[in-house]
Amino acid sequence: MKIGITCYPTYGGSGVVATELGKALASKGHQVHFISYAVPHRLTNFVENIYFHEVEISNYPLFEFQLYTLALTSKIIEVVKYEKLDLIHVHYAIPHAVSGYLSKQILQKMGESLKVITTLHGTDITLVGLEPSFLPLVKFSIEESCGVTAVSRFLKEKTLTNYHIEKDIRVIYNFIDTKRYRPDGKRNFRDHIAPGGEKILVHTSNFRPVKRVADTIRVFEKVRKEMPSKLLLIGDGPDRYECERLSRELNLDKDVMFLGKQDALVEILSSSDLFLLPSQSESFGLSALEAMSCGVPVISTSVGGLPELINHNETGYIAEIGDIDRMAKYAIDLLTNDKKYNEFAKNSRDRAVNEFDIEKIVPLYEQYYLDVLNC
Ligand code: GMT
């Protein structure tokens, strides 16, 4: 197949899923054309069968705001026309599904057809899409997509109820390359980060309010009272400064390490003991899956699709949003009980391998493409 993929190229789960999907499809012989304003950050090396088309945005002085949706539409039309794409798969509804719809309509007038598939990832449905200025557009572009997938059952249900949509949405979970994300690296970073044998807690995110990173620090404060430990915070975003201030205020700054954006994720995760994800909203929780695949149990909130990923009392623990005491109690319980910890670590790895491996999930997308092309 010849497949177009549009996504956000920067840090963020939807771009990661889109890029890893494109790479996996290309390795299976499909021709994949990424269309975005920059090369997706996980697309660093030359990969056979992958092409990148940059959306150029004109800066005419009259346009106070950049017309990205329209520039993207034009680029999709151009690529579909000249590369003869079978379909375009857009990730994150806003504004990609709208550009997909516009391209389809314009191409139709030109005598060309285009199938548009939209994958809903999270805040496009649960947060941004609900803003009154976006809601009608999101609803319309989902209804007009030839196919729609959601990354969890939770997200599918939210879409149908919040937007009053009657549509067959297919759930295709996030996936992970379990051969790459594996527990083996365990000691690599440990000697450097925790030379005294401290326990290592870790969190990765884009530091947006929805991630409640400050809760991670407050949970850590309680854990550190019980045992020598370190907290690694990976990523960057709007709440980082406030979190740095909080860790200084709580006198934790020697043990809380803000590592910023990191490429060595596998090494860091596999050197860690526990992953914390206290989000306010999380449609699936790709970062938690990355940790599980490295054999790291997760303590999270019970929101969104997280209970579809984390088995409470088996691969980790789930608590209510903001319940710092409970999350800390779970962390201490697990980190002081070797037998239970090793079981949870093994269960986490097994669940990632058995349920969410890239080789299991990518064929579900391929099948979905065929279903949409044949309908
Ligand atoms: O929805 C977002 O906040 C953006 C998106 C991203 O690009 O980071 O994250 C979502 O998509 C991921 C991949 O499908 C999911 O694993 C994340 O749970 C989800 N984030 C939220 O729902 C907050």
Describe this structure in words.
The chain has 375 residues and is an alpha/beta fold. The protein has 2 domains: 2-175 and 357-374, Rossmann fold; 187-355, Rossmann fold (3-Layer(aba) Sandwich). It has 15 helices and 13 strands. It has helices at residues 13-27, 68-83, 93-109, 123-126, 135-144, 153-162, 190-193, 213-226, 240-249, 265-270, 286-293, 306-309, 324-335, 338-356, 358-373; strands spanning 2-6, 31-36, 50-54, 87-91, 115-120, 147-150, 169-171, 199-204, 229-234, 256-260, 274-277, 298-301, 316-319. A 7-stranded parallel β-sheet has the order 3-2-1-4-5-6-7, with helices on both faces. Strand 9, helix 9 and strand 10 (256-260) form a beta-alpha-beta unit. Bound molecules: ligand GMT.
Return the CATH topology of the largest domain. Rossmann fold
Question: Would you report the number of β strands?
Answer: 13
Bound molecules: ligand GMT
**Spatial extent as radius of gyration:** 21 Å
N-end to C-end Cα span:
16 Å
**Regions with little confidence, pLDDT below 50 for 5+ residues:** none
Query: Helix/strand-derived class?
Result: alpha/beta
CATH superfamily label of the largest domain: Glycogen Phosphorylase B
Report the biggest beta sheet as strand number plus sense, adding barrel if it closes: 7 strands, parallel
The rough form would be described as elongated
Look at the structure and give the mean pLDDT. 96
Q: Tell me the series of helices and strands, N- to C-terminal.
A: EHEEHEHEHHEHEHEHEHEHEHEHEHHH
Helicity range: 40-55%
**CATH uppermost class of the largest domain:** Alpha Beta
